[in-house]
What does this fold into?
Amino acid sequence: MASVIERAVTILKLLIPQGGIKEWGASEIAYRSGIPVGTVHRILLELKKHGLVAQNDVTKKFRLGLLLMELGFIARENLSIMETAKPVLKNLMEKTKETAHLTIQDGYEGVLIDKIETMYELRTVQPIGMRTPLTRGALKKAILAFLPSDEINDIIEKHEKAKNRPQIMSELEDIRLKGYAISFGEVTCGTAAIATPVFDFQGKVVASIGIMGPATRFTQEEIPQKIKYVMEAGALLTKNIRGHDRVKRN
It folds into this structure.
């Protein structure tokens, strides 16, 4: 039986905005979670008391509270790589004219923790905090390829069917050899991405840096130059955090 804390965490996760919807009623959350509506309502009121959720006075629906935002800002500040990455992301966006992304690993998933948006009106939009399996998309695969082999196997077994695993393993080997990953439409249809890993002082992969945009701007003529800029950004960020680079970027 799930503990109260587990149920509270489940409820908080279900309050994350989706598709423009930012508020949900207790009955909606109960339906989505499988938790009895009475239990959901009691937990929501307790979370509200502590500022973790807020309630709309008119609709009586619930949304994430300001305390979570404050805690989130503190967590982001603790990620020193983010501050170091800011100018590198900005420079990468200016050179490629595409949105520059910084992604880290959290368990079996990759999490977008920062980005610098392109100046183009036509762009791909992924919210900061977006989670995606580490087997999907260049920004995640650039991390996955450089994890320990047993961890790679666990992640692939969790996310992929057996018939797809040999292909993914082959792709990861190619990423290790080249030092970058490239993908088309793996996370969002009609998009493309290029990414490279970032390493800490022990040579452990701690993030990926890369670009994402409409696939129409990732032509065969443009891709080599975009790869060059992404690789330079990965080398610079690794150097700036005093990392030991495991990729030959020249």
The first strand starts at residue 53 and ends at 55.
